[in-house]
Prior knowledge:
Blueprint lengths: L1 H7 L1 H17 L5 H16 L6 H28 L19 E4 L7 E6 L2 E6 L9 E8 L2 E5 L8
Parallel strand pairs: 3-5
Antiparallel strand pairs: 1-2, 1-4, 2-3, 4-5
Amino acid sequence: MLLNSFLNGYPFWLLLGFALLISEFFVPGVIAVFFGLGALAVGVLTLTGVIESLAVQLFCFGAFSLVALFGLRRRCTRWLRGSVGGRSQTDLDDVGVLGNRVTVMTDFVGGTGDVQLNGAKWDAESNEPLRTGDTAWVVGINGIVLRVSASRPYQAS
Length: 157
């Protein structure tokens, strides 16, 4: 009887809602938060006396949670996970190396070799025959491989 009244009452729904919201911090997937919102809504409606029976509470929990999940998830995912804003679509220079001068560390064989940039060794590729000691410039980046050229790229002032 006591367990039934606890499961049927607002404390259960409020505690479940807060537990689901907190669980999102530990297992982020942007899903539990919407079920937490559904549980909180049922808890508030049960507290105010709008709904009373367990069957209606369960139905409302499912309905609120699914509406929140499918209706708000797309809009909230970016906000909940964060994003990078203010970047141009053409700005592909994630590490800020385009246009920097590099020193060729090994002869380029088959279009690949090693370069030194800011004291670090990088794998590089080039369509030009570069030799050890040559100076080159970064003209592109493909993952962690720099694309380099012997001619300096144009840079707008």
